[in-house]
Amino acid sequence: MDLSENFRRLNERILAACERAHRDPATVLLQPVSKNHLSDAVRAAADLGLRCFGENRVQEAKTKIPQCPGSLRWHMIGHLQSNKCRDAVQLFEMIQSVDSLPLAREIDKWADKSAKTLPILLEVNVASESSKFGYNPERLLAELPELNSLRRLEIRGLMTVAPYSVEPEKVRPVFRRLRELKQQCEEKLGAPLAELSMGMSGDFEVAIEEGATIIRVGTALFGPRQSIRREGGEGP
Length: 236
What we know:
Blueprint: H1 3-21, E1 29-32, H2 39-47, E2 52-55, H3 58-64, E3 73-76, H4 85-91, E4 94-98, H5 101-113, E5 118-123, H6 137-149, E6 153-159, H7 172-189, E7 195-197, H8 204-209, E8 214-217, H9 219-222
Parallel strand pairs: 1-8, 2-3, 3-4, 4-5, 5-6, 6-7
Helix pairs in contact: 4-5, 6-7
């Protein structure tokens, strides 16, 4: 694995996508997804200047984060179970995968106990895939006022995981719908939402063209995932 070469190629692709969309590349955050990658891979990515990492599992993050530079920032991007909220509030500076009102209430409870305000993204299952978590768009709009009333949570935007496709153009409507939904949320809240977290290794260029501010990239940066068992965390 040549991490620096992968990073260089990713930056070229990001710059090209931003140019096509007439966007400033500074408005797009490349977020490495470090799930099942060893902490030495995270440290190597940090040496290239990457600072904000995404983790899918709380238990894995509990093991990995203390082994990585303290200057790094961490977001929870995987499905969060209610019984993991206490740890998630302590470990992450943002939770991108808030997919229900009960989960939001539980996060708010633990954030209040920690006397902290926690930025969140609301995860939307735009394509209504039964295998994925996330809000139905209509339910999100219905519950948005109550979500916004939780005083320890700060809604920063929306997140989605698009259906897998070998043809990225096929998922463009998913990214476009999330952008439109963000605009609907902004109208309902009467305030702007800064973030659209969408796009992964296979489709991030289309996501950027449709307005992504955070792209979550694992394989295109790190290569195939490794087991982290020898570091004491969960396996795949």
